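USER:
I wish I could look at a protein chain and see how it folds. I am handing you a single protein, as its sequence and its fold in token form. As I understand it, each token names a local backbone shape. I hope you can help me see how the letters and the tokens relate. The protein I mean follows directly.
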Amino acid sequence: MKTRTKKIICWSAVALVIIALIVGIVLTDGLYQSEEEISEVMKDAVLHEENTINLFGLEVNPGLISAYAVTLILLVFALAVRIFALPRFKTVPGKFQLTIESVVGWFDRLAKTNSPHRNSFLGAYIFAAGSYIFVGTLFELTGVAVQATSGNSVALPAPLSDINGAIAMGFLSYFVILSGGIVSNGLRGVGRTLKDFSLPISMSFRLFGALLSGLLVTELVYYYIALSFVLPVIVGVLFTILHALIQTYVLVMLTSLFYGEVSEPYEKKPKKAKRKTSAAEQNKPL
């Protein structure tokens, strides 16, 4: 009987919340008017031409401020782990040590699996790149607001939702792949890497398109007052978490695969020995 009463109370509370949201939407729909057209909102979310940030006298995209903030967060966290946590690591790990070792071990195994011949630097790079993409994407959820030069309040986006940040990450990964080919096979490794000249472009626009799509969908939901209750939270969180996981996995997997391909040692194919003809065969009449 008590269980049934609790269920009735829970469902009644849910129904009251839904009714309250519907009433709020109906009553406030006519009170809000957007100052910008939806096309302008979407365009500025991509190009950042209007809502720029003043950084020491220079007008920069909000994505650059996000990139600096995420980099600083990761560096401070790494320094704190190195100074305070690492000396206390034990043979039987605790929860924090187990989490750190599991993450580092996953990237290390990924590097060794896809590039068995040369993987020490690859493991460090994909760990750093993956951490930056994951944390940078989740950084959007903090909703840190800054004032733009236009006077508007702007929430700092994910660093890689800016096309410049995505291109930088794509080309950096490509140069790491190129370095692996040069170290392992010299000029032959350069040739192996350059044949996939479209790789940095595909990496860049894959990151940019995936992260920007979540931003645009959230902007679109926020723009319409009828959809701006509760739904943006669900949409924003789901898109952000999914993109953080998927794009981190895709970039580190592609980087490790191509790095392993170009760094594989080149093996010369043995030349076929010429068959010697005997004197009898040479003097044999045609």
Q: What stands out?
A: The CA atoms of residues 39 and 220 lie 10 Å apart.
